Amino acid sequence: xxxxxxxxxxxxxxxxxxxxxxPPAALAIHLCIGQAYATSVYKNALVAHFDTSxxxxxxxxxxxxxxxxxxxxVMGTWVERVGPRAAMFTSACFWASGFLVGALGIATSQLWLxxxxxxxxxxxxxxxxxxxxxxxxxxxxxxxPGLATGxxxxxxxxxxxxxxxxxxxxxxxxxxxxxxxxxxxxxSGGAVTSxxxxxxxxxFLVMMLxxxxxxxxxxGWTPPGFDAGAVAARPMVSTANVSAANAVxxxxxxxxxxxxxxxxxxxxxxxxxxxxxxxxFFRDGGTSSVxxxxxxxxxxxxSLFNMAGRFAWSSTSDFIGRKPTYVLYxxxxxxxxxxxATVGNVSTVVFVLLAAVIISFYGGGFATAPAYLRDLFGTFxxxxxxxxxxxxxxxxxxxxxLIINGFLDARGTPGELVAADYRPxxxxxxxxxxxxxxxxxxxxxxxxxFHEPTGPSGALAEGKV
Amino acid sequence: MPDQMPDEQTPQPVGNQTARLxxxxxxxxxxxxxxxxxxxxGVVPLFTS
Lengths: 465, 49
Fold this sequence. Notes:
The complex is a heterodimer of chains A (465) and B (49).
Chain A: H1 22-33, H2 43-50, H3 54-82, H4 84-107, H5 111-131, H6 134-140, H7 145-174, H8 189-213, H9 228-232, H10 244-247, H11 251-271, H12 274-281, E1 283-284, E2 287-288, H13 292-320, H14 322-343, H15 348-377, H16 382-389, H17 391-411, H18 419-441
Antiparallel strand pairs in A: 1-2
Chain B: H1 18-48
């Protein structure tokens, strides 16, 4: 079989294979699929090209994120079975094809093709790609799972940082009339078509680096000096394994689902309205003291903290434990949100710092989740369990904007409001975080009846763990 | 390229991987550094205006 090199058995690492090759393999995938958060770069160009509304173009991104959650949930068990290389290869094919079909849709002025291409096909690539390296990283880094998954999921945040300026510069090359430094300049449809083709080909090649670099550790492999007993002796860390099918029957899974949902919903509350929010907080007599360029700088600043929080907080969780880390995200998050609502308009420095730490918790919540799942459900099907947990992200992606926009719409138009208009929405987010805090407090070790058998006929004995 | 190892044979240890480590990490860190640089340029107005 021409594609037999993708099989799990052909990806077992030979002795001495450096585990430090696995994080860049994972990053190669996540840096590419993280482009999903950079779609705003060509949004206006698509609106002009299709002569349609921002909402109709925004649907492209919404479909992609819904497909991310659905495909991660549905394909998680398949990803565990076939291994990371086949999953990464499949993800690369879907992600690149999504761009190419989307390019065809733009070139032929058929928006439905962009929905199908970037939204549906690309979205499936997003979901499979997001979970494809998680399980493998955790198995290579049993001593530092938070560090390992933090590195990969940081890449998802970093992908947008790379794609945004790169897309602007590429569109300027393909359309000489487009000025990337002028916010009012709009690229032609032809430039976005060329951009999609370029990104599709480039991302496929970079993702192949991940495909050919990733390996699974040989059964029974552990890093030198690793003491499994010491790790298992830590509170809330189990050596038992729970299948994905059983995991969703445990209260622990749904407590964690609630935790992730609340943490993401609260973060989106700021991210959704970041630019108009900072201008509204410092508005006096109809005029804001924060210029549009400064507001754009604030959005960029948040994206840095979103990315850094994924790595820093997830790595920290290896030392302080997963549950206390979420106590930090949710508990301190509550305090920061209250401060933002009450004293956030005292100075821009206070506002920016409060928002930045909140967003770092938002990113950290994503990155720490796989390690939390490993602690509770073991490594057996942790990628598949993670895929199911990501439906919380999809749900929060709907709930977060609904909450913040619902409150703000009742007050007026963002960009014309004042700080007090944000208080009802921010205090609602405090309530959302409080629900997550309680859910996290209720997490206990999983009952033994959900554990997989460890006898000679069990899946664990087949070296699939 | 993929490692193919016959089941009945003892797998051979991999050789020196320094070059591979350097190249693989460069492929992901160079674009990331570019993205960080461009983003930090965008952040500057937040602290200068």
